[in-house]
Amino acid sequence: MGMALRKGGKADLTKTRPGLRHLVIGLGWRAPQGYDIDAAAFLLGADGKAAGDSDFIFYGNPRHITGSVEAATNPAGGDAAQVLIDLPAVPAATERIAFTATIYDPETRRQQFGQVQGIYLRVSDEDTGEELVRYDVDGGLQGETAIVVGEVYRYKGNWKFNAIGNGYRGGLEALCKSFGLTVSGSQGGGRPAPAPKPQPAPPRPTPAPQPAPQPKKVELRKGQKVSLVKRQGAKLGEIVINLNWHQGSGQSSGGFLSSIFGGGGSGAIDLDLGCLFELKDGRKGAVQALGNAFGSLDAPPYIALDGDDRTGASAGGETLRVNGRQASEIRRILVYTFIYEGVANWQQADGVVTVKCPGSPDIIVRMDEYGSSDRMCAIALLENVGGDNFSVEKIVRFFGGHEKMDEAFHWGLRWVAGSKD
Q1: Which of 13, 101, 125, 182 would you label with 162, given CA atoms 20 to 30 Å apart?
Q2: pTM to 2 decimals?
Q3: How many other CB atoms are there within 10 angstroms of residue 165's CB atom?
């Protein structure tokens, strides 16, 4: 274990380790069930402010334009979140890198860091795996909904670590404001935009900065939640939610699902994609082939199902479309699939849901929990954040039918037996 610090303590990083280049900042906590805590990093100048929203590193902007600071997509070693830092690549104008944690939607959920235990930050040498510093936040938090856990900072040509542990009321919005950024929306779900401030004219023309690279896809773990990426002030484009499955080799003409769910002919099995929706005005319902409830893109619920693959032979699977320009009218969407005919064998189907939105990495949700004999699976939950954007959470939970799933997610609909014929 590395050097243990208390609040306000400082430790040298590079002065005694001149070859230190790559850091892993690991953060962790023990939160009650239902808490959704996000970690982030802010690159700050000598004035303690971020120069722009690209200096805010989080799940929606996981890598700095320089590549010097990056949010790890699959944290190892038991950490809830990790930030990777290439010290020599950090911009010269960056004096500090602050590491934070915020509670998502704390006002609505009545949550605060007073109920979160075991908050820690540890600094490790990525190249050797050696833990250099550890800071355990030793209480003192009550109604705060955001916290600056610690920071690495420059001092006389070297890097040091500072254990901070200061909390903020007001969540992500208050935290960003303290760093010179503003957040769209009141729930902390939007991407920040830089507060205007004068910039000195460069002595000579310099190349225009390129947008920060985005990963081509993000594969979610169960319970993990990410937000769709959109340009500041812009509307989302059309969101495409596709369900597909491995086709394998040597199938009969009846299609892959016919061979694994029983039945020798085409049409012997029917795997359906659908969703429950709740609009901001309180209207609720379902979009699915059962009952011919195919929805509409241009009118409520602004969600539509592209037909129904009755055989499982379609290489494109089944697709739901969401009108992202009407995101502000939609409160939440629960994406599910159910077996209309046949015997459940989820492992062989190995279903995959892909969420595509212009400008955002593809979000992959694998139906990788097997063994259930239930015929329905809640796959992913899209929730409105910031008024005109959605977060996507991996669920993958099985149920005996629509009513059981409805009860679990508190939708409150009345269900009757239906048919697609």
Answers
A1: 182
A2: 0.49
A3: 22
155 part of a folded domain: yes
Contact 28, 160 (CB under 8 A): no
Condensed to tens digits (0 to 9), the pLDDT of residues 335-374 reads 999 876 656 677 766 788 899 888 788 888 988 887 788 8
First to last CA, the chain: 65
Task: Give me the sheet containing 56-57, strands edge to edge.
Answer: 10-12, 158-168, 146-155, 96-103, 37-44, 56-57
**In this structure, what CATH number is given to the domain that contains residue 345?**
2.60.60.30
- In tens, the pLDDT along 205-218 reads 444 444 445 556 78
Asked whether the beta carbons of 227 and 390 are under 8 A apart, the reply is yes
Q: 122 and 257 share a domain?
A: no
- Is the same domain home to 127 and 276? no
Q: Spell out the residues 6+ positions from residue 73 whose beta carbon is closer than 8 angstroms to its own.
A: 62, 215, 218
Asked if residue 204 lies in contact with residue 284, where contact means CB atoms within 8 angstroms, the answer is: no
